[in-house]
């Protein structure tokens, strides 16, 4: 069987765990690596097992080279590149897989284990949710087990469970250390930036809005952000989460302004009560944040722009937590600059003549701006407009067609039409996009906003009073604002969102809903407490603990705490106050266990020999022989000082075997 | 070699003392461990027979002293007598100068005479008028005594009981042995018949071998556990002294040697503990004497983990 002794350098136990670990490591990556890698892994695993069974041999150098090159080429074909995160991870997993048929020695297997740990870490770049983190414990445990298995003698046939127990113990012992490092380890700015995984079809607000954009967004139940309020959660119809203002209109789409003035904070005056809140934002790959009107944030990397939105100095690439304070009654930009006025009255020259005519008529009718706005809103309220996710397609003069022909639309239609009309009437106005409302999680008392809560509304400017919010959608479908999209559209949403596991689908099943809320609350905690524990939070917390914070202090504190922890751990493991049971003691314990199971228990005050004599009558010749053999070796070991532990273990194993239920049955 | 001889010797003694194999073996073990033996029993149970038989088969030169209440120390140890021929005092050794001394009914003598013997037992030498005289090697004492309750006895104090390695009682023979006895076999009449099966050299060699029997750490731990338990036993006023532990270990070595082993196992300790330690334990003040020390020793053996 041992045609090449090197093959057996990796114990069976370790190989088994290596294969399990690989499967566990690769599984979550299957969401973003080319699927053929799974096939490749199965093939390599089979090869490896056959090699272990000495059926096949390891590939020769030329074959290995060919496999490597073709795998790299396949990655290139699948991903269009060999650089970048996606291709990099695919390459990593491929290498991780191919290494399997290249294992010769323990050293190779160790490399494989370390590669596995690295692959687990790369998984966090794609998914750092609670579930993913919990899952990653499985591959880590399996890798540790394989590692432990590698320490056995080659050819050892020890049960894989023993290695597993060892690795689980190690993991358990690592927990306090991990917690310590989590709390104290400095959060460094990234040394290099990694290109983020390209996520095609990732939903979220974009910098422009055309008819149908937000309706499309509304079909996604994906989480956008969660907001926790210091005080009570405001009424749902006050939860207008501003993301962007879109002042530029080209006749079809609204776009962001890119003017210099917008980059300066807007002029505003605090007024009334304020409300503090914090938001945990899901990655959006965009720099803009979501805020209630009008918010300021003390966060260093966040600032307010000219249209009162909050913007971070770099895109939100991973879950991001920020704190802000909103002044709902603040006066925003009481004085509008000439340039600002020009932007917000800008209209494309031709097009939509009927709407222009209508707006002009209204202007003639109402000299007062407020009355004009009220009349417009009343128009939407009284005319037979219909709120729907599936509006008919619109042609050249989209606003005209919507206003007077189809009259069916989603929030972007209403806000776009109203802004257009306001501008015609000479009132500076713009479209605001963001989210509206959200689901109040009763388990955790926070608001949870999904992509389907995306919304667009109107902002118009009055001299002296500044920007005012108007929401024509509210006039058409007040339940959208009061309750939420599902209640406004009911079946339409259900029909659109027909995924079996969609959380929305089961929202009327009370206990399921409760369960979902609880789970989401847990996720919220994970994101705010664990992922959100970044530099600033760490500083704040450490300041609370130690007063002034500087890295020397934290370093010293960390080292001291680690020394203490490791010391305690070592004490716990070594237990110097406790005498280690001698090997002979262990033998005795095993012997006693066997005898208890066979109902021949030795009483503690009984010596081995007296016990053997006592139970002799209940044993057959074979068992008696085994028993006598064991007693003799045991006594030699324990009392004559020239015993052999191996021999005693062997004798005990023989005794177990002779008294095994299988043998007893046969008898 | 020596072991075979010893087994033969045991068989020979058992021909005389019927049905007392264990007690005979213990008595032999006691001698092999260089200990003195105290036989305690009612008159007529075979104490003297046993001592005689042992002395004979072991090929030892032996003396017998019958202890009485008017026995004086000089009667045991010997006296210095003025000899006219050499015009000097000459020491006339007493019966104690022998290899095996049978001290019959030791508790009938006065404490003064008792302690004269007991000193000799411990020191293995006799000091008379400033001159030390070594006792021969080997030197054994097999003392017999009647139970304390019997009339005309001076019970041995604890400190002196301690000098005996073992205290054995023979007890009534079982009916089969007694039947054989009455049928004419065994008994004192035959005590003459056993021949010496060992010589002095063999006995000394055996004693040396016994001393090298191994008592491992694990076994010593057991002895310590027993001693500890005896010291904490509620019915005991005082527990086993270190000398007692040593004695137990020494006796167990001899017992293991007789079993053909060169190491002691807990069973050896258990077999000998009643004989070795029961006379070294003291009842607690005020505790009822209802339970014999023997029962308490069994108590200890039943509660202390052996391994």
UniProtKB/TrEMBL annotation, chain A:
The chain crosses the membrane at residues 33-49, 61-77, 83-101, 108-126, 132-150, 162-185, 554-574. It comes from the Bacteria. The keyword Transmembrane helix applies. GO terms for molecular function: peptidase activity. Residues 403-474 form the Transglutaminase-like domain. SUPFAM superfamilies: Cysteine proteinases (SSF54001). One of its GO terms (biological process) is proteolysis. Keywords: Hydrolase, Membrane, Protease, Transmembrane, Transmembrane helix. Pfam families: TgpA_N, Transglut_core. The keyword Cytoplasm does not apply. SMART domains: TGc. This is Transglutaminase-like putative cysteine protease. It comes from Thiopseudomonas denitrificans.
UniProtKB/TrEMBL annotation, chain B:
Residues 229-299 form the ChlI/MoxR AAA lid domain. Gene3D superfamilies: Magnesium chelatase subunit I, C-Terminal domain (1.10.8.80), P-loop containing nucleotide triphosphate hydrolases (3.40.50.300). The keyword Amino-acid biosynthesis does not apply. SUPFAM superfamilies: P-loop containing nucleoside triphosphate hydrolases (SSF52540). Residues 36-166 form the ATPase AAA-3 domain. InterPro entries: ATPase_AAA-3 (IPR011703), CbbQ/NirQ/NorQ/GpvN (IPR050764), ChlI/MoxR_AAA_lid (IPR041628), P-loop_NTPase (IPR027417). Pfam families: AAA_3, AAA_lid_2. CDD domains: AAA. Keywords: ATP-binding, Nucleotide-binding. One of its GO terms (molecular function) is ATP hydrolysis activity. It comes from the Bacteria. PANTHER family: METHANOL DEHYDROGENASE REGULATOR, MOXR FAMILY PROTEIN. Belongs to the MoxR family. This is MoxR-like ATPase.
């Amino acid at each position: 069987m041992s045609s090449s002794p090197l093959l057996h350098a990796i114990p069976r136990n370790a190989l088994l765990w290596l294969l399990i670990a690989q499967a566990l490591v690769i599984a979550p990556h299957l969401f973003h690596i080319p699927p053929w890698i799974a096939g490749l892994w199965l093939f390599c695993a089979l090869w490896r097992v056959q090699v272990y069974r000495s059926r096949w041999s390891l590939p020769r150098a030329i074959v290995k080279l060919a496999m490597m090159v073709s795998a790299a080429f396949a990655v290139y074909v699948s991903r269009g590149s060999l650089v970048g995160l996606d291709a990099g991870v695919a390459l990593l997993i491929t290498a991780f897989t191919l290494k399997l048929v290249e294992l010769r020695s323990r050293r190779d297997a160790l490399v494989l284990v370390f590669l596995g740990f690295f692959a687990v870490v790369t998984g966090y770049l794609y998914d750092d949710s609670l579930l993913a983190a919990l899952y990653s414990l499985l591959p880590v445990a399996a890798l540790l087990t394989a590692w432990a298995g590698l320490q056995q003698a080659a050819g050892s046939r020890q049960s894989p469970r023993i290695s597993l127990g060892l690795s689980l113990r190690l993991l358990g012992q690592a927990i306090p250390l991990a917690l310590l490092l989590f709390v104290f380890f400095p959060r460094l700015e990234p040394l290099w930036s990694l290109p983020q995984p390209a996520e095609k079809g990732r939903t979220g607000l974009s910098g422009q809005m055309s008819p149908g954009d937000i309706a499309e967004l509304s079909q996604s139940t994906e989480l956008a952000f969660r907001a926790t309020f210091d005080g009570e959660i405001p009424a749902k119809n006050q939860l207008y989460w501003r993301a962007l203002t879109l002042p530029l209109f080209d006749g079809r789409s609204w776009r962001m302004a890119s003017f210099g003035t917008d980059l300066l904070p807007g002029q505003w005056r605090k007024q009334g009560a304020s409300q503090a809140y914090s938001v945990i934002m899901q990655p959006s790959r965009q720099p803009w944040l979501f805020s209630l009107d009008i918010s300021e944030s003390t966060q260093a990397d966040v600032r307010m722009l000219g249209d009162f939105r909050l913007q971070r100095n770099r895109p939100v690439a991973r879950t991001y937590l920020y704190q802000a304070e909103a002044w709902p009654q603040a006066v925003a930009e009481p004085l509008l600059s000439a340039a600002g006025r020009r932007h917000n009255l800008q209209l494309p020259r031709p097009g939509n003549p009927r709407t222009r005519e209508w707006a002009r008529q209204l202007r003639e009718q109402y000299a007062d701006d407020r009355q004009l706005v009220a009349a417009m809103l009343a128009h939407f309220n009284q005319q037979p407009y219909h709120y729907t996710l599936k509006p008919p397609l619109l042609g050249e003069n989209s606003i005209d067609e919507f206003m007077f022909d189809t009259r069916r639309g989603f929030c972007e239609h209403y806000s776009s039409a109203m802004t257009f009309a306001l501008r015609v009437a000479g009132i500076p106005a713009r479209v605001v996009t963001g989210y509206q409302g959200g689901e109040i999680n009763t388990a955790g008392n926070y608001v949870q906003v999904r992509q389907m809560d995306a919304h667009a509304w109107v902002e118009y400017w009055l001299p002296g009073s500044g920007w005012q919010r108007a929401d024509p959608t509210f006039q058409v479908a007040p339940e959208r604002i009061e309750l939420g999209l599902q209640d406004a559209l009911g079946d339409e949403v259900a029909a659109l969102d027909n995924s079996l596991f969609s959380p929305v689908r089961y929202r009327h099943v009370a206990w399921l809903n409760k369960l979902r809320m609880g789970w989401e609350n847990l996720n919220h905690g994970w994101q705010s407490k664990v992922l959100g524990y970044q530099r600033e939070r760490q500083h704040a917390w450490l300041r609370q603990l130690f007063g002034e914070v500087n890295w020397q202090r934290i370093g010293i504190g960390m080292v001291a705490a680690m020394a203490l922890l490791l010391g305690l751990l070592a004490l716990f493991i070594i237990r110097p106050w406790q005498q280690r049971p001698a090997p002979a003691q262990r033998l005795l314990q095993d012997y006693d266990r066997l005898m208890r199971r066979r109902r021949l228990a030795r009483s503690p005050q009984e010596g081995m020999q007296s016990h053997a004599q006592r139970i002799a009558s209940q044993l057959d010749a074979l068992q008696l022989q085994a028993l006598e053999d064991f007693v003799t070796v045991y006594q030699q070991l324990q009392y004559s000082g020239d015993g052999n532990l191996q021999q005693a273990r062997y004798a005990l194993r023989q005794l177990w075997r002779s008294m095994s239920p299988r043998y007893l049955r046969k008898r | 070699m020596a072991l075979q001889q010893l087994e033969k010797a045991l068989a020979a003694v058992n021909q005389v003392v019927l049905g007392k194999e264990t007690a005979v073996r213990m008595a032999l073990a006691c001698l092999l461990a260089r200990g003195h033996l105290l036989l305690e029993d009612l008159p007529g149970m075979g104490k003297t027979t046993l001592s005689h038989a042992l002395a004979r088969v072991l090929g030892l030169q032996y003396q017998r002293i019958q202890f009485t209440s008017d026995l004086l120390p000089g009667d045991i140890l010997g006296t210095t007598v003025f000899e006219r021929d050499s015009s000097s005092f000459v020491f006339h050794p007493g019966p104690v100068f022998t290899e095996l001394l049978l001290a019959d009914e030791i508790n009938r003598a006065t404490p003064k005479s008792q302690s004269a013997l007991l000193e000799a037992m411990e020191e293995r030498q006799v000091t008379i008028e400033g001159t030390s005289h070594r006792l021969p090697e080997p030197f054994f004492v097999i003392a017999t005594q009647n139970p304390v309750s019997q009339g005309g006895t001076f019970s041995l104090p604890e400190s002196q009981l301690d000098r005996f390695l073992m205290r054995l009682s023979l007890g009534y023979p079982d009916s089969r042995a007694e039947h054989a006895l009455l049928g004419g076999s065994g008994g004192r009449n035959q005590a003459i018949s056993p021949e010496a099966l060992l010589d002095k050299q063999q006995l000394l060699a055996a004693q040396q071998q016994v001393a090298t029997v191994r008592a491992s750490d694990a076994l010593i731990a057991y002895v310590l556990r027993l001693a500890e338990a005896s010291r904490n036993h509620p019915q005991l006023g005082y527990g086993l002294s270190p000398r007692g532990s040593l004695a137990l270990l020494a006796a167990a070595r001899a017992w293991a040697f007789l079993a053909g082993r060169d190491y002691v196992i807990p069973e050896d300790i258990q077999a000998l503990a009643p004989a070795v330690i029961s006379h070294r334990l003291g009842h607690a003040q005020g505790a009822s004497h209802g339970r014999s020390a023997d029962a308490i020793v069994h108590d200890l053996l039943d509660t202390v983990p052996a391994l």
